[in-house]
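Now for a concrete sample entry.
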Amino acid sequence: MRLEDKINNDIKSAMLAKDRAQLDALRAVKSAILLLKTEKGSTGEISEEAELKVLQKLVKQRKDSAELYKEQGRNDLYQEEAFQLEVISQYLPEQLSDDEIRTVVKQFIIEHNINGIKEIGKLIGIASKALAGKAENKRVAEVVKEEVERAK
């Protein structure tokens, strides 16, 4: 089942259950998908990779907002963002652990013969593309930098 269909079904379920908080989170996802489908130059269909990118973007936005609200002592808004983050995260594939990311990165260092910091950008690009949807790009970049430093 496509993500869009799954979201629509879950919106119906949330409406029937009168779950306002879940409905708000799901509508945010649906809105982002619709915007992507209707943007200029779009064919009206979006790939699974594009859907994952949208979900990751929404998750990152919610994380950043939740952190900001927590710092400012706005617990009510923090809880709302944290709940939406939890709901949206359910639609992402399971995220890889640091050890799993590290294993993939070490493999790429060997496969692509990475010999130092000069090639770190290349390795980050390769690893980010391979791990799209499975790990945050920020975390992938951190692990790549650590492993390249160790490989010196």
Summary: The chain has a mean pLDDT of 88. The radius of gyration is 18 Å. The chain has two domains: 3-89, 98-151.
